[in-house]
Write a structure and sequence with these properties.
The protein is mostly helical and 268 residues long. The protein is 68% helix and 0% strand. The chain has helices at 18-23, 38-65, 82-105, 112-144, 152-172, 177-191, 194-204, 225-267.
Length: 268
């Protein structure tokens, strides 16, 4: 009787050495960019459209509808630009950054959302601060005879710009997100001391800069009619423009943090 011989038809696959397997870097999936909801995109579009329409109305009313001033003539039309950008730079941007910094430092509300919001607000505020100084200089040259004077209001506004640039530099000097957020928040709160100094500078010191533009000490309006309407439209338009730019800058801040976290994972 012949013995039956079994033949193994399985094919053995070569196994990579353990050293090769250990040296192979892990595959890390890239972090996808933040996805905006349809409602968020619609809100941003509405803000952008309203800001554009408001700016267009400001230009139309300011150049062709409102009358020239009795003393300043057509130069008064800068009132539809300068107070609006100054309001955003001094109160909206730095005010929001200060409030966000307080919320970040408070343990119960601490979140990267507040840190990112403060950073975005300061960076957008820098743009409006520069516009404030430029438009003020254009207005000051024919009125005062000089482009720049070390006036209390002008100097405190320039100091605010220096503080904002220092805030942004401080953020770029720290790679640790938590340490960067804490130091930036403390700096923003300290820098906010300059806001009331800037606001009351025309009352505390004898300055070249005029006093209140819209209201008197008794709360009465200093401008009337079409000039007042145009001024309020410009304030509304510049405020919407600020929030539209703020949303866009906030998204960039989120992506920056995600790229940093992804590169840190790859390094580890």
């Amino acid at each position: 009787m012949s013995d039956s011989t079994s033949i193994d038809t399985s094919v053995s696959r070569p196994t990579a050495p353990a050293s090769v397997i250990a040296a192979t870097p892990p595959v890390i999936a890239a972090t996808p960019p933040p996805v905006q909801s349809s409602r968020s995109r619609m809100t941003e579009r509405i803000i952008g459209v309203l800001a554009l329409v408001g700016t267009a109305f400001t230009v139309w009313l300011g150049l062709w509808v409102t009358p020239p001033d009795k003393f300043q003539g057509n130069l008064v039309r800068l009132v539809y630009i300068h107070p609006g950008v100054a309001w955003v730079a001094l109160y909206a941007a730095f005010g929001l950054a200060t409030i966000s910094s307080v919320f970040y430092l408070w343990p119960r509300t601490r979140s990267l959302f507040w840190d990112r919001l403060a950073a975005a607000s300061v960076e957008v505020g820098v743009v409006f601060n520069v516009l404030t100084l430029v438009s003020g200089s254009i207005w000051g040259k024919p009125t005062w005879g000089v482009w720049w004077a070390w006036d209390a209001r002008l100097t405190s506004t320039a100091i605010m710009l220096v503080f904002a640039l220092g805030y942004l530099a401080l953020r770029r000097a720290n790679d640790d997100p938590e340490l960067r957020a804490k130091r930036s928040a403390v700096f923003a709160i300290i820098a906010a001391i300059n806001v009331p100094i800037d606001h009351f500078s025309v009352d505390w010191w004898h300055t070249l800069h005029q006093g209140a533009t819209v209201f008197t000490e008794n709360g009465n309006f200093l401008v009337h009619g079409s000039m007042l309407v145009t001024l309020f439209i410009s304030l509304f338009a510049f405020t919407l423009l600020f929030f539209w730019l703020l949303r866009a800058r906030y998204r960039l801040e989120v992506r920056r943090d995600e790229r940093y976290a992804s590169s840190l994972e790859e390094a580890i």
